[in-house]
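Handoff note, outgoing to incoming analyst
You'll be picking up this chain. Sequence as last confirmed:
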Amino acid sequence: MTSETCRTAGIEIADDYCSRCGICVAVCPFEAISKDEEQNKINLDLDECRVCGLCVTACPLSAINLVYYDVDSLTKKVQAEMAEKGAKTLVLSCRGSNPVTFNIEDTLKDENVENFVALRLPCVGRVPPEFYLNNLAAGVEKILVLQCEEDFCRFKKGSKIGINRFELLKEAVDALGYDPTNLIIKTNSLKAVYDTEKCVGCGKCVFICPYDAIVWKDVSTPEIITEDCMGCGACALVCPHQAIELRGYEFEPVTEIIKNCSNKVAKLQAQGKSPILLFVCQWSEFSALDDVQKGCLTDDVTIIELPCAKGFDPVLVLEALSLGFEGVMAVICPEELCKLEEGTYLGERNFSALKVVLKQYNLDDRFDSFRVSPKYPGEFKTKLEEFKKKISSIPETEDKTN
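Most recent structure output, in case you need it:
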């Protein structure tokens, strides 16, 4: 039996509790749930499922179980942080609209919000009214939701469902005696931006954009069609002068995270540990990216979150190895689960080019990439442990990149 067949899915339908109402079939953005009329049964096609959780929060009988982000756990987390900070405001944001490297205060500067607790999820569209009501009852005075624009949503229906639920929630809280004006929703999607002074007009960004969101201009800087930009980061990667960047994933802040974490490298090596750097597509793993604090998952593991595999920069791998990291691992989505055009394909093309360069320095065994899906809990951790074991068994080299 292969490891592929041994994987345990993180979502299941409890047939004994299911009423066959079909609501989950209607809300699933990926047609992963269907109803067998002849057998009177709801079926889940795990190959099509993206574990967005929209079906879970829509089910009136809680017959769908998902290992991520259940209401009770989220409520306890929020309340614990509220008590610790003495905060009365909750800020809930989509992962796609709020990168972990970005200062969320900048997004909230027009909302007059100072002391707050921030909760970041893959999609706020999956949050049920019960979660909001629980926190209002526990003393939260204001709830501000930052979600992706509807066309930008990585889960297709997530933003639309989130907005509809929020409007219905306002009516409910008004009836319960809470102030509905303290429930605020904003859209905030990541877009590429130009520094026109750095642009040399090479046109690489126009060529690489899979959404035709960048238009060539004969006598000026190429123009970004903002409404068509999906924030994948492919254009920023190919720009030779860093004239175009994705807000929240700029080159310099990412480099700074790597340098800050590399300061501990010598100490870790003296303890017999092998410092590892990970580049992780934010849609390939949920739990680990929730646990990241200032770029560090653990003392010996540093994570750089990517908006998509297309945003992977091979230069940063060389930088990391030169700073003392023992190995670099990239984690991306399986091709069939990629939420952006050509993400896995372009990412792996960059990996291949990088390995050619690393081989010249006899460092190709210090880099590897894996396809991982959050629908299989524990898969990420297993790959990471395998990679760490591999790196720790490699004899030290005198000089990694020089």
